[in-house]
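Technical note accompanying the year-one report. For the benefit of new consortium partners, we illustrate the data format agreed upon in the data management plan: each record pairs a sequence with a structure-token string. No post-processing was applied to the example shown here.
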Amino acid sequence: MNEKKVDENTLVSVCVTAYNHAPYIAQCLESILAQRCDFGVEIVVGEDCSQDSTLAICQSYAERFPTQVRLVTSPHNVGMRANYRRVVEAARGRYVSFCDGDDYFLSEDKLRLQVEALEHNPQCGLCCTRSLRFVEGEGSGWQYPVGQMHTRMEDLLFSNTVENCTALARRDMMLRYYREVRPEEHPEWLTDDAPMWIWFSSQAEVICLEQQTAAHRLLRESVSQSRDYKRKIAFCDSLVDISLWMDSRYGRGTHHHALLKRRMEVALWVLSREGSVGEYFSRWWCDVKRTPSLLLNLAGYGLIVKNGIKRI
């Protein structure tokens, strides 16, 4: 990896990945520029050959704020995973923060509060906060996570409560993550942030602040958000596959069976609500053939009863 040296004048690099975000990217960049900090902050924007006016908007910000906004582009679309990696590689700060082009910061003190937390806790590698989640065009949203924020790997394997737009991490650890995990070798992983934050929790302590500092916009159709139940299941399966991989390498496989059980139950729950009886039984049998001990998982039988009642 071509690692850039830390710029002593830049403490935080905010990495923005943008693709077809023309309606949202200005709000994203303005919220970062509005941060109240007594340290240097740069914005590294990875614009991935959008088909709308996202590039033109990003270029205008780079021209207006040449000392704060740097634009990373290429002649062709590189995809989500490579776009994330190239903005991290281009970062020059001691800390890295993420904000996808359709998200934005809510608190003008977000970066200051998180830097203070990590500066006072050198054993911690990651600081996150609560967020505001909302579906584009639908209501006012809700706080995420609703309940407890998880900091331990054994909890994050089952429920990743680190919202990407709230995270601030040590850049040296981020670069080590890319060298060690090599996420580009896992095209089956449908998200980039989940493996990253689980890995961080296996290597260092995680701090969670109660403040709500950023907004995560859920688009009606995306890799992680879909009305198609088959795509929902595929994404959830991918999350569990990530956790299984992490558990096998950093958790000694302690949670292997529990994760397989979780994967089965999530898929069957979705199918009990939206799929056919045939699809339900097909998925149940596939999981049982692969892991015979799941035959004893009573949740599978309860859900098929629910599926049958629903169709009466």
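Partners are asked to follow this layout when depositing records. The longest strand covers residues 205-218.
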